[in-house]
Amino acid sequence: MARDTRDCAIMLEAMAGFDPKDATSLDMPVPNWEELLSADLSGKTVGIPREYRMDGMDAEIVALWDQGVAWLKDAGAKVIDISLPHTKYALPTYYIIAPAEASSNLARYDGVRYGLRDLPEGANLQDMYAATRAAGFGDEVKRRILIGTYVLSAGFYDAYYTQAQKVRTLISQDFQKAFEECDVILAPTTPTPAFALGENVDDPLSMYLNDVFSVPASLAGLPAMSVPAGLSKDGLPLGLQIIGKAFDEQGVLNAGLALEQRAQFTAKPEKWW
């Protein structure tokens, strides 16, 4: 998270790099993303996914998306329609895989080797485990651990987790095919304006549904960024999302810069706490 695209480029360059102790790290050169920043998109093609135009989308989001298309055309880009046919499966797929990973990764926090320790008086080992995990994790984390444990259990692993990984592959293949026609993809960040602070804390399903446009890129392992581009009639933020090809962070940053320069979004909350 940063104030603008240039700061994103600077911070990404500082954070990127090979870590021999990280099995997910790739040994690749780190470009000077800041130096290569350009808002000129001449010769570039922007894809607009048909499947992202969903029923129930907020009218302000649709209008901003159309404005984003106009901004990128003004920057020199060609705009075409593309198809990401498995988009409708992205949200349920994500909320199987992500909780499964959370459940596995957070299993270590038992109060013995990792994390805080909550030891009620007279408690045995099992009591300590339960008390520690109850005290140390918030409601959303607990919810994801429970979902993840369920889908990884012997009776449901193939029915849920294995199937979700297969769908994840299909989603990734959708993007690969789309990027044969375009360089980056433009979409809304969310289907509705931002929630008011505390508005949906008791409605996790609404929170999950608002991720419908952002989780496909995560599932496919693609670089993406959200660019603040306006305010709703209630003064809440609206954003546009740029999704790029694998390892084409420069393309994402350049398109983001083009949006940023044209949106001229400078609003700041007077009070956010």
Write up this protein.
By secondary structure, this protein is α/β, with parallel strands linked by helices. It has one domain: Alpha-Beta Complex (Amidase signature (AS) enzymes), CATH 3.90.1300. Helices cover about 45% and strands about 10% of the residues. It has a five-stranded mixed sheet. α1 packs antiparallel against α9, α3 packs across α5 and α3 crosses α6. The protein is globular and about 70 Å long. The model has no long low-confidence stretch (mean pLDDT about 90).
Give structural attributes.
273 residues; alpha/beta; Amidase signature (AS) enzymes; 5-stranded mixed beta sheet; 9 helices; 5 strands; 11% strand
Detail the topology: elements first, then pairings.
Elements: H1 5-15, E1 45-49, H2 59-74, E2 78-82, H3 90-105, H4 125-136, H5 139-152, H6 157-178, E3 184-188, H7 204-209, H8 215-220, E4 224-231, E5 237-244, H9 249-263
Parallel strand pairs: 1-2, 1-3
Antiparallel strand pairs: 3-5, 4-5
